[in-house]
C-alpha cells in the first residue's frame, strides 16, 4: 500500500471517530485529560534516521539522537490545535474538529519523511524542521493548512494540495470551508504585560499566508472569538497559553 492510500485510510478512520468524541459529555473528570493522540514514528533528518513521538500533526519530539527530548515545529504547514475543542467553522462542531485534530498525529506518523533542519529554533525553543513531502500530503488529506508567516512565501505545492482537498471536501473541509482559519489568539495583557496592542493570526486558505491582525481586546478565558475573512468567518475559543495544557478550564475538558 502506498503512503497516499494509507493516509486516506487513516483519514476515514479519524472521521469515523467523530461521533464517539462528540458523545462523551457526561461524567467527565475534573483533571486535565491525558494525551492519547501521541503517535510513534520515524523521520530521516539531514540524512539520519531517528525515532520521534508525534504530539500533533505538525510537531514531534525526538526519542533518540543528538536532539533527544527536544521538541520541534514543522515549517510550511499548520494543523489544527489538539489541546482542546477550540476551532469551529461551517457545520462543524468544535468537538468534531478536535477529534480530527487529534487524529492528525497518526496521519503524520504513518510514513517516514525526509526532513531537514539548519538548527534554528522558534520563540518556544523548538527546533524548526522542514519536511516538504509531509506538508504536501497533510494538506492533501485535509489534515494540514498551507502556512507561511513573517515574510515567508507559501509552498505552491502545499497550496495546490490544500485546494484539491477543499474541492474534494476531505478532512477538515468535509462540513464546510472558510477563507480564513484562526490559528492563534492573543489577548492584551495575557502574560501580565499591559500592552495596548495584541494580535491574532489568521491563515488565508486561498494563499497560505498567515497574517497578524492587531487589536486591543481583552478576551475572557473560554470566550469564543469569531473573525471574518472576505465575508466568511471562523471561530476559535480563547484560552491563555499557560492553561492550555495544565489547569485546563472547562471548555477544554472532554
Q: Could you write a compact summary of the structure shown?
A:
This protein is α+β, with helices and mostly antiparallel strands.
Number of domains: 1
Q: Helical element count? A: 5
State the helical fraction: 10-25%
Q: What's the CATH C level?
A: Mainly Beta
Strand order of the largest sheet: 3-2-1-7
The main β sheet shows up as: 4 strands, mixed
What does this structure look like?
With about 250 residues, the chain is of the alpha+beta class. The protein has a single domain, classed as OB fold (Dihydrolipoamide Acetyltransferase, E2P) (Beta Barrel), CATH 2.40.50.90. Helices cover about 25% and strands about 25% of the residues. The longest helix is centred in the middle third of the chain and has 16 residues. About 40% of the residues are buried. About 10% of the residues have low confidence.
Amino acid at each position: 500500500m502506498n503512503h497516499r492510500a494509507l493516509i486516506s485510510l487513516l483519514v476515514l478512520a479519524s472521521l469515523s471517530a467523530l461521533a464517539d468524541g462528540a458523545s462523551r459529555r457526561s461524567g467527565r473528570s475534573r483533571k486535565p485529560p491525558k494525551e492519547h493522540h501521541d503517535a510513534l514514528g520515524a523521520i530521516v533528518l539531514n540524512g539520519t534516521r531517528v525515532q520521534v513521538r508525534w504530539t500533533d500533526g505538525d510537531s514531534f519530539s525526538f526519542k533518540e539522537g543528538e536532539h533527544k527530548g527536544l521538541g520541534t515545529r514543522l515549517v510550511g504547514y499548520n494543523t489544527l490545535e489538539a489541546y482542546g475543542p477550540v476551532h469551529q467553522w461551517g457545520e462543524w462542531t468544535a468537538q468534531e474538529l478536535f477529534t480530527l485534530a487529534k487524529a492528525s498525529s497518526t496521519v503524520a506518523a504513518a510514513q517516514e519523511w525526509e526532513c531537514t533542519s539548519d538548527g534554528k529554533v522558534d520563540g518556544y525553543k523548538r527546533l524548526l524542521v522542514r519536511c516538504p513531502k509531509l506538508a504536501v500530503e497533510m494538506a492533501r488529506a485535509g489534515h494540514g493548512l498551507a502556512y507561511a508567516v513573517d515574510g515567508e512565501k507559501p509552498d505552491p505545492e502545499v497550496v495546490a494540495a490544500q485546494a484539491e482537498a477543499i474541492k474534494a471536501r476531505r478532512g477538515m473541509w468535509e462540513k464546510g470551508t472558510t477563507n480564513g482559519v484562526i490559528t492563534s489568539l492573543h489577548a492584551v495583557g495575557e502574560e501580565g504585560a499591559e500592552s495596548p496592542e495584541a494580535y491574532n493570526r489568521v491563515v488565508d486558505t486561498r494563499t497560505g499566508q498567515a497574517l497578524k491582525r492587531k487589536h486591543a481586546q481583552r478576551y475572557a478565558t473560554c470566550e469564543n472569538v469569531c473573525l471574518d475573512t472576505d465575508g466568511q468567518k471562523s471561530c476559535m475559543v480563547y484560552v491563555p497559553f499557560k492553561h492550555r495544557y495544565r489547569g485546563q478550564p472547562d471548555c477544554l475538558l472532554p
